[in-house]
Amino acid sequence: MNEAGQHSKIAIGCDHNGLEIKNLLRDHLIERGCEVVDFGVHDNEPVDYPEIAGSVAEAVQKGTFNRAVLVCGTGAGMAIAANKVPGVRAVCVHDPYTAERARASNDAQIMTLGSQIVGSSLAIQLIDIWLASEFQGGRSAPKVAKICELERKYWNVASVSGCTDRETKSALAATLQPERLLTPWLGTSWKMNKTRTEAREYAQLLIEAMEASPLPATVFILPPFTALDSVCEITRGAALKVGAQNMHWADDGPYTGEVSPLMIKESGAELVELGHFERRQEFGETDSSVNRKVRSALEHGLRPLICVGETDVQQAYSVAEEVVACQVKIALHDVGTDRIPDILIAYEPGWAIGEKGTEANPVHVNAMHLRIREVIGYQYGQSIAEKVHILYGGSVTSTNAAAFACQPEVDGLFVGRAAWEVGSFVDIIRTFCATRSELPASPLAGNLIGVA
Ligand code: PEP
Fold it and tell me: How many CB atoms within 10 Å of residue 406?
């Protein structure tokens, strides 16, 4: 963390009126150890502020930056223009109190300033306050969530219905949906099943099926450690991702029987499953060990798939939401905002997984996913939470996959037994993707209208 807070990568931009203040702030931020990307302008040549505001706000929307500053004559035009980009919250700031509240209450990613209103020293004071302030969550979180709802309700509908061409309309509808809805993640853990030979055969067949008819999904398999190397060899260059089923947090050491992140990374695997229900129940995995593993995985460039879920007893006492919220919070403890889009979460209630599992009601699953996203939103802001893929796992089959695909908070599936045979896994993937593409866009992205 640097002096200016943990948001070390900051975008900055201005029109010709804001040039001097923008340059001053840029140099100040660099001095404070921030990485600053200057979107211009770089001279006094007149420029229309929406051009700069648009480029900066789009970069924020894509997640390239989670903080940005825009300067024009009053700060108003920049704020209005930036706020047209879905997911962006820009606040025009002229005083220290607003600088603090823009972050704490509104979770604003962009601060705009008026060079004709604030002088150099106030501008520096405002940026320092704004960067040092964090979203307070709590009572502010539902309000920010409502801003997102408004955005979905009006902007998506207005933009999509504002154009008449069917293809443009369709493309526009697609761009307005969060990425998590456009590209679901579907995967399977083989648990303690499959020899190396069986694993290679499976991977080969799955790649062939995926190449024969590509799907708008990210597909992954988690073989046992013994088959990791050889499966990664087969999948090199293919769209199929491979991961491990567990990991120790340390690079090496006296941990008999354990496997380190370096070893997993060397095998070519990209993902690692952490905190599976069976590991929690049978092998004493705790929330804090999951957290150590999550942080270690991220440090080593492995994407953690964090499994959370309540037991049947916890469900019977109606504390599922509290239990899962607690698991998510601890798993993400000390994980920086910029790493959140790199994580995957699998909600897998203990009572739904394995031979004795009972099928979960898709509506209950959706509500739990919503709760998980809320927990992430409280901590990191709603726009970051929207980037996280939350998968469902527990007795998923090709028969019930469609029902889960209809739920707007289900961003993919994590499958056990029903995916251990390639054909049946492919059926599940196809069912999920086909259901998604047939649905009108509205239930999947707030009130985004269907493209008729
Ligand atoms: C699991 O154990 O993670 C799982 C999803 O298993 P199944 O699909 O077999 O219930």
Answer: 16
